[in-house]
Amino acid sequence: MSDWLEGKVVENIHWHDSLFSLKIDADIDPFTAGQFASLALEINGERVARPYSFLSSPHEKPLEFFFYTATGGVLSNALFALQPGDTVLVKNPANGFFTLSEVPKSRDLWMIGTGTGIAPFLSILKTDEPWSKYENLVLVQGVRSSGDLQYQDVIAGFTDKYGDRFRFQPFISREAVPGAIQGRIPSSIEDGSLEKAVNLELSAADSQVMLCGNPDMVKDAVELLKARGFEKNLRRKPGQITTENYW
Ligand SMILES: Cc1cc2nc3c(=O)[nH]c(=O)nc-3n(C[C@H](O)[C@H](O)[C@H](O)COP(=O)(O)OP(=O)(O)OC[C@H]3O[C@@H](n4cnc5c(N)ncnc54)[C@H](O)[C@@H]3O)c2cc1C
């Protein structure tokens, strides 16, 4: 049985005027890294609920989520305005199958996300599981501008702890920034520049790929990977591609 619990906002971090993070105290059941919770607010007398991936790992408290305010978006803009001490409804238990238990073992794990679609990967990377299951871990994040690249301290922490086993590759579509690829992730899979930048080959034999966020990026990347022999990962037929579309 699922139930709505009252969570309390501990902190609302405004990274810029359309990107923010909420830390929420809520007594939910244990979840698995990669899952999401439904969050809800009463807006004009109606309960408006949407799913949000945990950015915090299962062992961290308070819970943490990372948001874009969608243009004209009903719930994301209301969440942006929350203050510490405000109430937000959190559905218990958590949900979702974008977890490592659904991803087969291989040599390399590629975690490719757009914008806030990096959240489930940070939750997963904070646990021991990916580091015991895979040899090389590649985190890729596509954003519009450099102000969208947050949690750089958390990402640097993985490099400090795991050295060469971990690679991070940002993509920034609207700015030229040293170290970042300017452009779209699918084009970079197509022309080989992503593999060149991280110095690792994407191959169906040795790679598992998780894709999260913008459905256009996910769709285009899946098509390109399929052309290279990758297949969607299904329970009845394991493959190499596991996806989570945010809309
Ligand atoms: C499994 C799952 C996990 C999700 N996790 C997150 C998360 O961790 N962080 C997050 O910000 N969103 C996440 N989303 C999207 C989220 O549920 C809402 O759709 C989003 O916040 C918009 O809700 P809204 O009421 O403000 O906008 P609505 O009025 O419902 O408008 C929806 C429109 O907003 C746009 N949109 C939706 N999500 C985003 C986004 N992330 N970035 C840019 N544009 C978007 C799309 O154009 C979509 O059609 C997730 C969605 C799913 C299905």
Structure description:
The protein has about 250 residues and is of the alpha/beta class. The protein has 2 domains: about 5-90, Beta Barrel (Elongation Factor Tu (Ef-tu), domain 3), CATH 2.40.30.10; about 100-245, Rossmann fold (3-Layer(aba) Sandwich). About 20% of the residues lie in helices and about 35% in strands. The chain has helices at about 75-80, 120-125, 130-135, 150-160, 185-190, 195-200, 215-225, and strands at about 5-15, 20-25, 35-45, 45-55, 65-70, 85-90, 110-115, 135-145, 165-170, 205-215, 240-245. It has a 6-stranded antiparallel β-sheet with strand order 4-3-6-1-2-5, with helices on one face. Strand 10, helix 7 (about 215-225) and strand 11 (about 240-245) form a beta-alpha-beta unit. The two termini are about 25 Å apart. Flavin-adenine dinucleotide binds near residues 66, 73 and 77. Flavin-adenine dinucleotide binds near residues 53, 66 and 76.
